[in-house]
From TrEMBL:
Recorded superkingdom: Bacteria
Protein name: IS4 family transposase
Region of interest (Disordered), ranges: 1-21
Residues covered by the Transposase Tn5-like N-terminal domain: 19-77
InterPro entries: RNaseH-like_sf, TN5-like_N_sf, Tn5_transposase, Tn5p-like, Transposase_Tn5-like_C, Transposase_Tn5-like_N
Organism: Dankookia rubra
NCBIfam families tied to this protein: transpos_IS4_3
Pfam families in UniProt: Tnp_DNA_bind
Amino acid sequence: MVPCVGRAAGGTARGSPSENWTRTEVEAATFADARLHRRFGVLLGQLAVGIGKSIPQACRDWAGAKAAYGFLANSRVSEGDILGGHMAATAERFMASRGVVLLLQDTTEFTYRRASASAIGVTKSVNSGRDAKGRWRHHTLCGLLMHTSLAVTEDRVPLGVTALKVWTRSKCGTAALKRVVNPTRVPIEGKESVRWLDNLRRSVELLGEPGRLVHVGDRESDIYELFCLARDLGTHFVVRTCVDRLAGDGTHTIATEMADARVRGLHRVALRGPEGEAMNVVLEIQARRVHVLPPIGKQRRYPALDLIVLHVTERDRPRGREPIEWKLLTDLPVRSRRDALEKVRWYAMRWKIETFRKILKSGCRAEESRLQSAERIANLLALFCIIAWRVLWLTLAHRADPGATPQTALSEREITVLDRILLIRRSERTEETSLAAYVRKLARLGGYLGRSRDPPPGISVLWRGLSRLADIELGMEVATRPTCG
């Protein structure tokens, strides 16, 4: 069952289903002023129908653009206020769902061209080639960093953003510091990586039912303190590891114990090669319970943990590319090949947050903003997160439940417009009233061909389709509006 975008968790409609999908994401938001709440709802709707457009283009006139700029610059508005209603709706969708829900976490950078980095901050220093004398040149990138948690069901349906942290740096570069300070001896509270723990804690507090939640992260989240926090909160994790920690009695490491671990089974997957060619790959899966010790400098503060180590390796070394090799850690039991494949599949779903990030950068064009302060950009990014979630939801929800009604995602007006401008092919008439059929219609507005062997529509054609649908709706409204004089 696909959680409905336009309905409350209990199944009761708030007005007409998805008549204005933003209502569900705005209703529970709390602002210091009711006028800010109304302006937020208007601005979210304008940016959603004008995906990829600048604020003046989305707002259509100077009065609307001025109001938008005023909202983003208001000192009483923060990204937490903007996402408050969406997170409340996410919690409702979580309660309406069943089974395990994955918490995908990731950090991304947003870079901007500015004459001075003082108002926005910096992200990192990069090489820009050599000068005339052969010396390396470096320049500092101006921008913000954003760490996001996204809740996704086992059917790959995104429920929404559960935690968000946006921050800036006054300076960058830690290489010199690492030469004099061992980072493993620094408390986690003094590092930027504490964001992984903070987001996990906030997500569990928001959603409740920690036993249903599984944190999924890449190698950057291979943090021992995170594993201990998950245990304390009663939740779970599947993390790709990059640290060969001490194991057993402390005289050897995890790699030593995994060297003779038996192969639990084989798994065949279909991949695309470097040139786009189809290929089948055989993966070997090893699993073993290991007594993992905390870092040496933190053994008095944190206990040892019994964790499952999963190694997924490609059986035959391929040509022209790196072999597949995943080393995963989880606190969940793995008693069979089926359990092991389940954990591997969960980690593979981490890519959904990469898709979410692509919508932010390529669809919403978040890095093309001309706002001049970090606070205003952070507020705009929070708005874009809600829009990016909706695009991702549209892309994946109809695949999980093709027979769902189109009203779960589209307004009656949007359905009527799609019916008028696009005809469904004869081969699709058996499902012409389904959500999947209307998503294909929407995708065709964005350039989707819908041939028999084409994959389901993706995010790019959908965000282009949504933008074009909004323009068509505006044209139809103008054409039917009575004139004066």
